[in-house]
Amino acid sequence: MSASPKHLELLAPARTADIGIAAINHGADAVYIGGPAFGARHNASNELADIERLTRHAHRYGARIFITLNTILRDDELEGARRLAWQVYEAGADALIVQDMGLLELDLPPIQLHASTQCDIRTPEKARFLQDAGFSQVVVARELTLPQIRAVADSLDGAVLEFFVHGALCVAYSGQCFISHAHTGRSANRGDCSQACRLPYEVVDSQGRIVAHQKHVLSMKDNDQSANLRALIDAGVRSFKIEGRYKDMAYVKNITGHYRRLLDEVLDERPGLARASSGRSTLFFTPDPERSFNRGSTDYFVNGRKDDIGAFDTPKHAGLPLGWVSKVAADHFELELAEGVGALNNGDALTYFDLQKELVGLRVNVAEPLGGARWRAWPNEALDTLKDLRRGAELSRNRDMAWDRMIESERTAERRIAADLMLLETPEGLALQLQDEDGHAAYVELVHAHQDARDAAKAEAAVHEALGKLGNTVFAAREISLQPLRAGRPGFWPASVLNQLRREGIAALEQARTQAWTRLPRARPVEPPAPYPEDTLSYLANVYNQAAFRFYVKHGVKVVDAAYESQEELGEVSLMITKHCVRFSLSLCPKQAKGVTGVQGTVRAEPMQLINGKEKLTLRFDCKPCEMHVVGKIKKSVLKESVGVPMQFYRKRPVPGVQA
């Protein structure tokens, strides 16, 4: 199965195959994971044997595995990427998530292609182009509003629309941030971002005044669309993507379980929609997104621009409110827990804000109950090193050892496919007819002598008990029925016979599912090639190899500049383009001043500066599309230490009749 106009797909991340298996068990319809290389996440690669192990597990449930092959590639890397595409295809992968259009010019296997978030899909025209170029699934920019998402969905007539519903937010439009390469030589488009957006900055206005001091003004809260799922479905989203290929097992279990529950509620309400895979997950815990690492939550721009999308005080995880400090001694402190908060544990991690509003963390070495809500805690750290830990300070807990022990245990969920089993008594013995929730069927027979049952009710109960023992399989018995040879007079069948028949029947049913499994179809590009929405591409298009250049020329582009990583853009350029506006967040936007007496006309969108140590960046505000550009240039040290790959692309519009 796969996402379609009626199927809803929950798409979960995985750093490793084991995390991917947990995601499937906790309700994911698909998992995206890095292969051995080119996966846009440094140190998040997986060997082919692990990919094969994960695909085998996923396919048992009709779930799918998507491989991230979404870095931009040099010419000398294209052949390795092509070989890798074939290797993961042969390992059973269902789709490649791609950024570099050069891959489409290669001899790829007949595997489905999905457009990466790095493709920066903000318009219906670009989404439609990618569909017409051969992509089966496209993920739109996280910055879009519901009407904009609907417009993109309406432009598609075959490709599935995917949208991020949870996780960390990159402040830039994906694929449109080059600060990391400019300052460190580490390219975000090649999976090695230095995360300059999480640093603290001084914000200085055009007159040299500091308007924000040591604030993380480019650091966003984390995405959480829990409240918007129905609206997103109505807007045309069919694949709901969780961010987090760097995240741990506990995060993936918790967040996947959370969205599985929410989507199942919608599916129960709307019979016209269905899951994109088989089975139902039972969770043995109550998911709580607030317990996983987060910087606070926002639904970003889905419901329009808001002024509280930033995590400006800290990019760290403050945790859930715990209580407050009631006393500080030489080697310990006492605290009172807020109402409804769980007990303090040895090993818990706590946080509080010092008097400069910087987040401070500490680890509880020993926790001692004092009665009621009062506790005494001995921290791992010396008390005199914990800045501004004081009476009345509010405490949060960002690691709860009781929760961690629970979520890290092996049995936090199980996933089962519903199956109906009918036992038929035959003249030669017994037969078992099975059919699962997807309509796959199996039939097995067993020769055995008949023996009349002394107690018909007891014999029938024994049949139900024996056939219902599906605990070590992927199935759960939905209905068990018995068709005796003589009406109303079931025979007596030894438990060993029933168990053997059940095992053979389940093996046959799983074999039937395996034989019926088919690969996702590869979309064919339209002919003649669809024209790209623009005829000129700047460095922002991330074209880093000759194959990508040929792709765009084939689709009508006349001028192609090389990717920023080629290091041909040596002057000041936009190193980041973002929908987030520092002026708006600091209440310094000219639009906010409109109609305010005494203020209107005095606030202008003049440039500002961001300063972090010796690093300086300029903020320029493009008010018509309501976007901000972070402007800077590549550092001399980067130019010395790393050599950009020279690109022989057109630098100006070619003269007709003159060969390039």
Automatic annotation (TrEMBL):
What PANTHER family is this protein classified in?
23S RRNA 5-HYDROXYCYTIDINE C2501 SYNTHASE (PTHR30217:SF10), PEPTIDASE U32 FAMILY (PTHR30217)
Keywords of this entry: Hydrolase, Protease
Domain Peptidase U32 collagenase, first and last residues per copy: 397-513
Q: Which InterPro entries match?
A: Pept_U32_collagenase (IPR020988), Peptidase_U32 (IPR001539), RibuloseP-bd_barrel (IPR011060), RNA/ubiquinone_mod_enzymes (IPR051454)
Print the organism lineage.
Answer: Bacteria, Pseudomonadati, Pseudomonadota, Betaproteobacteria, Burkholderiales
What is this protein called in UniProt?
Putative protease
Signal peptide range in chain numbering: none
Superkingdom as given in the UniProt entry: Bacteria
Q: Could you state one GO biological process linked to this protein? A: proteolysis
Keyword Protease appears in the UniProt entry? yes
The answer to whether keyword Transmembrane applies is no
User: Which GO MF terms are attached to this record?
Assistant: peptidase activity
The protein's organism comes out as: Roseateles asaccharophilus
